[in-house]
Design brief:
heterodimer, A: alpha+beta, 2 domains, five-stranded mixed beta sheet, B: Rossmann fold, 22% strand, globular
Amino acid sequence: MIWKLLRQHISIPQFAGFFLANLVGMTIILLGVQFYTDTQAVYQGEDSFMKADYIILNKKISTVNTITGKSTAFSQSELKEVEQQEFVERMGVFTSSAFDVNASFQLDESTNMSTDMFFESVPDEFVDVKSSDWAYVEQSHELPIILPRNYLDLYNFGYAQNRNMPKLSEGILGAIKLKIRISGNGKNDDYEGRIVGFSSRLNTILVPQSFMEWANQHYAPGKGTAATRLIIEVNNPTDQRLTSFIQDNHYETDQDKLDASKTTFMLRIIVAIVMTIGIIICILALYILMLSVYLLVEKNNTKLENLLLIGYSPRRVSRPYQLLTVGLNIVVFIIAIAIVLIVRSQYIELFHSFFPQFESPAISLTIVIGLVILIAVSIINIIAVYTKVKSIWNRKS
Amino acid sequence: METITLTDTLPEVFAQRTDINSDVWKKHVTFEKGKLYLVEANSGTGKSSLCSYIFGYRHDYTGTIKFDDQDIRQFSVSQWVSLRQRSLALLWQELRLFPELTAMENVEIKNKITGFQTRLQILQWFEMLGIADKVDARIGRMSFGQQQRVAMIRTMCQPFDFVFVDEPISHLDDNNSRIMGEILTTEAKRQGAGVILTSIGKHIELNYDKTLKL
């Protein structure tokens, strides 16, 4: 009955205006979030262990170096110089193994492959693997390893093709245990290598830093290893100073990856701009809603006052309008999510045709952000309506 | 609530006036529960203001108004809400009905929050006051006299310790006035409540315990 009373003077065009504006704003924000998550997944699908804005740096190896025997390792002062550059957020040094490594694995009864190899490690914070997977427990003989993806390609498209051997997928290889023999310092130990993944960015075999430190100590005490490669995290891969710093010092970097990181960086900026526009539209929509609610309360001033005077509490009187606005917000949220899902189903198809192994991530983040906006807007609405009704109680209007 | 006490109370707009000769303003007056009062006034002596002050609607007065020992200026919103639901009833001179709703809806919108009267009782009052045929008519289409009767029924739809009726019969004939008085006093007696009537001349003939001149 209160509703019958209070719905008087509700302006359909005003509320439709709010509804549309808020819908557009919300859809833009949520679509931005979803698109960003999806595109991130495309990039990370290629290499989930390393973020795109990590850059690997090494000195150029020239003929002169080779002839003169000049070291390609970074000196302490050079390391310091890199670390002190403004565009460098974090720096890590590759540690290489000073001991001998031999790895073998058995494909079937008759096929046993074995190869000499080497290990390298970078500080754990640069490796994007669940920390429980990327840990070496001292005394245990299980060792997590990340292999370069081109090793697999080399085997599949070269070796196996040639010799009629079975091709291996990443999944199968992940299930195979590598037998690893480490020798040095008069010791000889066997380890079980567990491949946690493949990296297309790192052309090296990665083991956890903790293992590397322990093993170097254990199998090759006293033999220091030089830092020949660095991994740096930059705050902006498109930074001109980064490019010129690399050139001036005759360093090298994984250039194409730098391009990829430039792309993601640009993408991030575009998404940020789009989302800002969405947020502005949402704020304007909220403003329209506030204005219509104020107008509505103003027009129904006498009715609201009379309700208060016959014993209704301000809370009770506010409720119909609060429910109205919250209801609108919920409908907007649901429709926005629906639109995002429809649009997404369109571009996901496109993604799949570009990147066949693309796995679409969940939309939970988008829903969570949508809910946060929904709740925030609703709380503002509820408080605003109550304050307005309270001002009628206090006869301020 | 047992008593309503006014001490030195005066509407702010009267502050400059020196010729105030009233039994209420600037005096010490106590209204007691269970008694029947008539406040007689000329126009412009602050009759409706008095009701508004006691009902917590306006606060533009000097002096104090107390319910039992509590100064009503100290009351919170929720205290006022519960007073208006359970202890204080007021029939406004301007009625404050909702023209968009029907007569019955206007009564029910009040009775719904208190659940105090049965529908049967309400219909009986409509009958007694001769507006039974108007139960489902919109208030906006009714005459002021008819509206006064609906407003009276609505006022009865709550428990109260005190009931204020501000010029309830200005547009009623003697017969309807008598019935209004009957309903009011019966309900007040049943609840043991105090009744304060105001009038500017015409008033319901009742056995007043005290008559005050405003």
